[in-house]
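Hi all, long-time lurker, first post. I run a small reading group and we've been trying to get comfortable going from sequence to structure in the token notation. Rather than ask abstract questions, I figured I'd post a concrete chain and ask someone more experienced to write out its structure so we can walk through it together at our next meeting. Sequence below, copied exactly:
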Amino acid sequence: MALDVEVTISLSKPAGNDGTWYPLLFVVDSTAETDLYGEYTEIDELVKAGYAAESSVYKAAELLFSQEDAPAKIAVYKQKAFSTDGLAKYLNKGWRQLVLLDDTETANAAALATYIEGTDKMLFLSVSDKSALTTLYESVNTCDRPFIVYHTGGKNEAAAVVGATAGLEAGSFTYKNVIIKGVEPMELSDEELEEIHALGACTIVEKAGDIVTSEGKTAAGEYADIVDSNDYIIQNIAYNTQKVLNRSRKVPYTNAGIGMLEAEVQAVLSNGYKNGMIAEDDDGKPLYATSFALRSQTTEVDRAARNYPYGKFSFTLSGAIHTAQISGTVTV
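-- Answer (accepted) --
Happy to help. Here is the structure in token form:
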């Protein structure tokens, strides 16, 4: 006799994390029929989209999704011929971490770094050759948005770094000492490691039994988490205040209307503090402030033009501890 209860079981796959942003894998494929942009939440979806298991896209995505804090989704943009103009069509998507595949040691990497510098995105590059790293550094050493990973493994190790961080909230982590899966650590002397860092790159090494990133700076020497934090604050203040204008039938040019804008700015700064971006004073109070002029402090010209240029905010970044010196005494 058939049972009245039917039981089915399916393999549970770990879901990715909804971080602040998601990554974009960028590949140039001369055999492609046309440019193609797509978003994917599972590795199997890439196969259905035509990315074979031996393709650089599949391999990078597999490495990315295998990390502990992998994002919930990725985007892939395939170009028939390299062009930053084509990428411009997708800048308004929610991706942030651009991972260049295949041609990271060519002139395309430098051109893309220059282009990304004028956006609110970041570029992640893998370089496996020391001379190529030197050449790349000469082109991008003034850029704050490229994050370069030097590794001779040839697995696009930058994808692993992105996979380990893109699922986290901006400002809640630093890019140094990020635990990486699926990548063998480099065996380097202190002098060799310092040489890589001097060329604006990090690598993947073993520390205290963990395989981690060796540094957390961009090509120009800025800490990558600071770039993230500044972008998070700017993007969210612009987005949230625009939402006030969108959802309100009218934001009056009154103290109450001005207060609506200031409240959104304060909310973003408060979230930034909760994420660990903003420092606090000795009493545990967050170090941020807003200053929005009252209506009586604005000009007639601005009121007539319905323009309010009087909003200001400030905050102090919390930074992070990357090294420490600890001393002790022994009593005999």
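A couple of things your group might point at:
The first helix runs from residue 43 to 48.
The two ends are 82 Å apart (CA to CA).
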